[in-house]
Amino acid sequence: MPEFQRFSYDVLIIGAGGAGLRAAIEAAATGAKVGVVCKSLLGKAHTVMAEGGVAAALANVDDRDNWRVHFSDTMRGGQYLNNWRMAELHAKEAPECVRELEAWGALFDRTKDGRILQRNFGGHRYPRLAHVGDRTGLEMIRTLQDHGIHCGMEVHMECTVLSLLMDSGRVAGACGYDREKGRFHLWQAKAVVIATGGIGRAFKITSNSWEYTGDGLALAYRVGAELQDMEFVQFHPTGMVWPISVRGILVTEGVRGEGGVLRNSEGRRFMFDDIPDLYKEQTADTEEEGWRYTQGDKNARRPPELLTRDHVARCINIEVKAGRGSPHGGVFLDISWIKQHIPGSEEHIKRKLPSMYHQFKQLADLDITKEPMEVGPTTHYMMGGIRVDGDSQMSNVPGLFAAGEAAAGLHGANRLGGNSLSDLLVFGRRAGRYAAEFAKSNSAPTIDEQYLQSTATAALAPFERGPSGENPYQIQYDLQDTMQDLVGIVRTESEMEQALDKITQLDERAERIGITGNREYNNGWHTSFDVPNMLLVSEAVTHAAILRKESRGAQFREDFPNKDAEWGKYNIIVKQGTQGEMQIEKRAIAPMPEELKAVIAEMK
Ligand code: FAD
Question: Most CB atoms closer than 10 Å: which of 81, 156, 467, 497?
């Protein structure tokens, strides 16, 4: 019988990115015993990769900003499918969360008079992103880690959760294994917070790293949690396209926020050609007005390069398809042109965008202070995820909470840049608080030993099939090709139906995965756990995308190219049926209170 190393907590947090760490700090502050489990080393999460900044209406650079403008920007960006309660809490609480980070030692860039500096980003009406050059996430993780460790959380690094445990309908903890020795672990807990980030690795071209295989969503779904908004996968407009080995790596929106412009092979700023009605009033008419906006002129409107990501990504796609792309299948993003306006622009660019400078110098041998970059869309962020209560972050499974990218609701059909770092602070804090409260009012759960043993037996089965079984890497590659080609930036029903057929075939192959070697640091074995999760979330994305027969936000349907007001009333929910089948349904969005409607009307 496989052995388990056993631990017991009030609150177990799965994931040590910003959301997990912020939840851990909050839960520990109530006196709860907190355990944190993460798949890789502490500090190695998506949050650390975040570049551009964290959105909060601090109004340090433009005093017209406040929570009402941030709320209405977030709702407009999400095309009104957002959970309005989350959007309200987020806009109201983000400034306090950023100041809290500062009090814990985060060193943000400063205005001349010593306040936190804020930069422009797509879809935000005013400069709103607090930042540290283009390494904001690094500073956030450093601060949260330092603070968290002193709050007394216990960390289990390089441990992957394989399954959640249940006791009489409520969550009872989780079990998993460690990469170093391949031992099994049991983390018994009265409450569990899922903070496992996104699903980007289900696609071929992505800015996401190897950990983002949708584990948390799959874990929650299997114990009865509902998933929401799965059709909305964000394709960031600017990823590297060349060299091929680094294709998909992010080029921060901060480049455009600092004045970078997009051009096609004819040298034309094509973003001026197509400005959505929703944004016409807020967008510059001329290149000159757009430039003034990026330099802080309060009377100017933003350039079209700073429209929402879904729109910019589609415009780039159109240029490439029309044969007006760059040599390697993207378009040109040029920050070097600002030399026309800023003397000493080379040093200015290096100071404002140090990571971008080094990224292109080292990976593409290109000096962005002198030449344009080549960029194209890359799978970046998951708006969908575990459906949660807006205030507490609890899912429909008692004791199971979710925060950060793994949770759905705040961003609706499209996330604004910078709103993820603020999301994970605001809702990480709330999830930690409410999970600790839940733990206090519930006794320790009972562990189902039989289930535990069956999970371990299933986890070891690929060793028995050995080299004659299916290769897990090949299944992963085939899935990534399928999702990229058939459920990507432009979608049609017939292609997505083909994708579902392929996913079914891949599911069958995944049942027969075989691996060789032993249990220590065995990547093949690890991939055998990732693959079923990626298949599950891919199936959910595809079903939801087929059901939504309209184009809105991140979902563009070539067969239904228009937005349909009727569809604007619903979220799509994916859940497991009683026979284990995947169920997909429309669910009406709760009516928005009159005072929030008034805020939106006022900002139009
Ligand atoms: P993550 O930070 O992704 O952490 C997930 C954690 O879960 C990790 O510790 C991982 O090891 C763990 N985990 C996963 N599966 C398991 C498992 N099965 N068992 C145990 N542990 C598990 N957003 C902004 O707002 N502003 C930006 O400027 C910005 N820039 C970005 C730049 C890049 C290159 C990328 C990729 C994203 C960027 N984002 C940005 C998005 C933002 O960084 C992420 O959405 C956010 O950090 C997600 O945080 P999180 O805490 O939810 O998850």
Answer: 81
Instruction: Report the C-alpha gap between 486 and 446 in whole angstroms.
Output: 44
Q: What is the pTM of this model?
A: 0.94
Give ipTM to 2 decimals: 0.99
* Spatial separation of the C-alpha atoms in residues 274 and 305, rounded to whole Å: 11
CA angle 485, 491, 497 (to 5 degrees): 75
Q: How far is the CA of 559 from the centre of ligand 1 (A)?
A: 33
How far apart (Å, rounded) are the C-alpha atoms in residues 236 and 250?
8
Q: Which CATH code fits 241-378?
A: 3.90.700.10
Q: Do 442 and 11 form a contact (C-beta atoms < 8 A)?
A: no
Question: Domain segments of the chain: what residues?
Answer: 241-378, 454-556
206: confidence class by pLDDT, cuts 50, 70, 90: very high
Q: What class has domain 454-556? A: mainly alpha
Give the atom of ligand 1 at the shortest distance from the alpha carbon of 136.
Answer: 28
Query: Does the beta carbon of 399 sit less than 6 angstroms from any atom of ligand 1?
Result: no
Q: Is residue 162 within 8 Å of 190, Cβ to Cβ?
A: no
**Residue closest to 12 by CA, chosen among 423, 431, 341, 412:** 431
Which residue has its alpha carbon closest to ligand 1 atom 32? 50
**CB-based contact 504:569 (threshold 8 Å):** no
Q: What is the DSSP string of 36-62?
A: EE-SS-TT-SHHHH--S-EE----SS-
Residues labelled as active-site residues:
309
Q: Is 128 in the pocket of ligand 1 (CB under 6 A)?
A: no
